[in-house]
Write a structure and sequence with these properties.
single chain, about 45% helix, Histone, subunit A
Length: about 130
């Protein structure tokens, strides 16, 4: 090795000791808010398959982010309808149960402190009597 091409210590195995480039996360590359790296780690640790492709955590993060945004938007609308500024479990339940597709997806899910949808069977309502005058 020549004296001029000396490897600096502490460069982390890199050649040269110039300033390190700022790392760009896979979430930023994909334009997502959900953590792609963490989801990839969970996929590996969960042993759902022997190998995990590079695109799998990105795709899963995008799907989860879309579902979360959809539920939060509907729950925010439900909270606004009830003149509240904070989303509660009740608003989440109303949002999910009033939406056809989300209701089907989360059919077997119980939301804690969500209550039930307001529903009275028409048989139980008092009969309307029409006056023949």
């Amino acid at each position: 090795m020549d004296a001029n091409t000396k490897v600096k210590k502490g460069a982390g195995g890199r050649k040269g000791g110039g300033p390190r480039k700022k790392s760009v996360t896979r979430s930023v590359r994909a334009g997502l808010q959900f953590p792609v790296g963490r989801i990839g780690r969970f996929l590996k640790k969960g042993r759902y398959a022997q190998r995990v492709g590079t695109g799998a955590p990105v795709y899963l993060a995008a799907v989860l982010e879309y579902l979360a945004a959809e539920v939060l938007e509907l729950a925010g609308n439900a909270a606004r309808d009830n003149k509240k500024n904070r989303i509660s479990p009740r608003h989440l339940l109303l949002a999910v149960r009033n939406d056809d597709e989300l209701g089907k997806l989360l059919a077997g899910v119980t939301i804690a402190h969500g209550g039930v949808l307001p529903n009275i069977n028409p048989v139980l309502l008092p009969k309307r009597t029409e006056n023949a005058s």
